[in-house]
Amino acid sequence: MKKISVIGAGSWGTTLAVLLGEKGFDVKLWARREELANRIEFKRENVQYLPGIKIPNNVIADNSLKNCVEKSEIVICAIPSEFLRKVMKRVRPYFSNQIIVSVTKGIEPVTSKRMSEVIAEELGSRTRIAVLSGPNHAEEVSNKMPTASVIASKDKITSKIIADRLGTPYFKLYQLSDVTGVEICGALKNIPAIATGVVDGFNFGDNTRASIITLGLMEMNNFGRHFGAKRGTVYGLAGVGDLIATCISKHSRNRFVGENLAKGKTIEEIKKEMHGMVAEGIPTTKAVYEYSKAHKIEMPLTMQAYEVLFENKNIKQAIKDLLSFI
Fold first, then answer.
1. Is 150 helix (H, G, I), strand (E, B) or coil?
2. Could you tell me if 8 and 139 lie in one domain?
3. In sequence order, what DSSP letters do the residues of 81-116 get, joined into one string?
4. CATH number for the domain that contains residue 129
5. Helices assigned H by DSSP within 155-280
6. The pTM is what?
7. Catalytic residue among 189, 265, 293, 313
């Protein structure tokens, strides 16, 4: 079998490495910290990010990007959005026209670039890129719970290759061409997930939660249409599907952030409790708010989330202000 590399040994990167390993591929899993790579190799388990899931022997954890990327057919990027560009610069010397798959659901801070745009800027505009998104919590996929997601690429052959490599009886992938829409949806759903967590933290109930999710969908649609996202993408797995899963799931890191904000904890305290895991909704809120403000896109939910996260606005006052939009 051909070699496939997974860059990023968090819960999702590890899950995909395990899935590919179980399908018989030669998999290299890159961990930024040598200590983590060594621990995975010794225990055959990623105790920090994906406890309880056995890692096949044909999945090799490594701290060397050179060892992981060279001679690979496909490189899967599971790096948090704020670090993706830095890692892609390090990948570039070993890049030799492999297919790149972005599985990161976020927008780059400062530039407001989508992940595929960051990858293309660093590795070249002719790079074959696909993006994987949808309602796909690592904790459920790793336990082989039935999951449907999407693979999007401008090139049909590329999307078919990735769908064939990653598809299993429990992990079904639909192929789309709307890369922009899929990435926008994957990033935007994290903002209402934080807000839904706040709602749950205050025990406001199902009615309020439904209103927040609906408002989040409206903003996802408005922001996505600004970039040319297709309606079918927004109202499909990559949009509504992922939005619902992220807003209601106990596995959602972004919902966890909101719940703890409602308890009066600071962002710094919440990040410590996450033990190295990243809630993409925090940097995404900033990037989306700044872009929407500059381009006059009405985003009331994003605005209130931004003011709470970055301007220390009283969270109960933010809720009161938001009610006028519901």
1. strand
2. yes
3. HHHHHHHHHHHGGG-SS-EEEE----B-TTT--BHH
4. 3.40.50.720
5. 156-166, 179-188, 190-201, 206-226, 231-234, 242-248, 253-262, 267-273
6. 0.94
7. 189
Give the domain-ending residue among 152, 177, 202: 177
Written as tens digits, the pLDDT of the chain (326 aa) is: 689 999 999 999 999 999 999 999 999 999 999 999 999 999 999 999 999 999 999 999 999 999 999 999 999 999 999 999 999 999 999 999 999 999 999 999 889 999 999 999 999 999 999 999 999 999 999 999 999 999 999 999 999 999 999 999 999 999 999 999 999 999 999 999 999 999 999 999 999 999 999 999 999 999 999 999 999 999 999 999 999 999 999 999 999 999 999 999 998 899 888 877 778 999 999 999 999 999 999 999 999 999 999 999 999 899 888 888 76
The total domain count for the chain is 2
Domain that holds residue 270: 187-323
The torsion angle over the Cα atoms of residues 112, 116, 118 and 120, rounded to 10 degrees, is -140
Residues 6+ apart with CB under 8 A from 234: 181, 185, 217, 220, 221, 224, 225, 240
- Could you tell me if residue 127 is inside a domain? yes
**Residues 147 and 234 reside in one and the same domain:** no
Q: How many residues does the chain have?
A: 326
Q: Would you say residue 291 lies in a domain?
A: yes
Residue 189 is among the residues annotated as catalytic for this protein: yes
Q: In whole angstroms, how far apart are CA 281 and each of 10, 22, 69, 140, 269?
A: 17, 31, 29, 20, 16
Residues 104 and 123 occupy one common structural domain: yes
Q: Retrieve residue 29's tokens.
A: 């899993």
